Amino acid sequence: MFEEEIHQTIISGNLFSSGETVAIGASGGKDSTVLAYIMKLLNEKYDYGLNLVLLSVDEGITGYRDDSLETVKRNKEQYSLPLKIVSYQELYNWSMDSIVRQIGMKNNCTFCGVFRRQALDRGANLIKADKICTGHNADDIAETVIMNILRGDIARLRRCTAITTCSDDDGIPRCKPLKYTYEKEIVMYAYFKNLDYFSTECIYSPNAYRGYARAYIKDLEQVRPSSILDIIHSGEVMCIKEETKMPVQTHCERCGYISSNKLCKACILLEGLNKGLPKLGIGKTPKTYRTEGASNSQNLVHVQTVLVRARQKLAPEMVL
Ligand code: SF4
User: How many structural domains compose the chain?
Assistant: First the structure.
């Protein structure tokens, strides 16, 4: 059933066409390992006619990514799929270890997230992929919906529930075949199939903000078990007012990557790192979310307070 549901998601969402090269974002974690296994299985069972390639990003995190990449290398042999690895060091001349040495453990995920998104695109370009598919599951998407609502980030709110997103005509489309698959199902499937995956958390993971959204959704699920799919559905049908200003997509003047400003976020962050001013480019929040005179940390506290209050209303005894 698990496999058939994902097949139905792929077919009804028109995710792929025969003959395409599909890069599977592979981190060695449970989601991407299950995704790689299922894509290979369904491609053969239903004759999708896809050319599948594992694509990994090496952020340069000693004791975490080096170990998880060993898992991906084993998956490459186990599933007989080619593997391409791109690293932050070769793309940006910085590893996450060296970035954290410079900026500390605050904002490190901002650098990592911006660089990873671009690295996946660059890797997919190198292998001439037509599509990128990632292992985002239903829980991830519901959390992102809640986070984007609380941040007032309308542009991301609109994109985050789309099963296929493409920020520009010449960008590589990204799709999420596990969009409607619960994290619990993925863990059980990986266990049942005895899949080889890596389950350690990143050593630089603070993840506080997402953690609040996750805890809130877990509470919601106790009073309404369908909450995760309901939130995704709400995100899908949410109407954004016509007059709402959306960022205009153009290309970065420096590296050519898709951007809504003259310079893309990765180039601004890199410039800050190279000049010894790592805070340059950090901390922009959507105007709709920013309150007059409030700093980012004040805004984050505001979001956390909203979530804690929501959880208290839901079940006061659950919140310490
Ligand atoms: Fe990168 Fe942060 Fe994720 Fe670690 S937790 S891999 S630093 S985004």
Answer: 2
Give the model confidence (pLDDT) of 110-123 as tens digits: 899 999 999 999 99
Atom 2 of ligand 1, nearest CA residue: 109
Predicted TM-score (pTM) above 0.90: no
Return the HEC string of 37-81: HHHHHHHHHCCCCCEEEEEEEECCCCCCHHHHHHHHHHHHHHCCC
Residue where a domain terminates, one of 221, 237, 253:
237
Pocket of ligand 1 (CB under 6 A): 59, 96, 108-109, 112-113, 202, 204-205
Distance 91 CA to ligand 1 centre (A): 17
Short-list 258, 260, 278, CA closest to 268: 278
CA distance 83 to 26: 9
Question: Do both 37 and 87 map to the same domain?
Answer: yes
- CATH code, 73: 3.40.50.620
Tokens standing for residue 14? 């028109």
Residue 289, domain member (yes or no): yes
Q: Are 22 and 129 in contact (CB under 8 A)?
A: yes
Question: Measured from the CA of 205, which atom of ligand 1 is nearest?
Answer: 5
Encode pLDDT of 138-160 as tens digits. 999 999 999 999 888 888 887 89
Q: Which domain holds residue 299?
A: 266-318
60 CA → ligand 1 middle, Å: 11
Q: Is 319 annotated as a binding residue?
A: no
Distance between CA atoms of residues 22 and 44, nearest Å: 14
| Same domain (yes/no): 83, 186 | yes
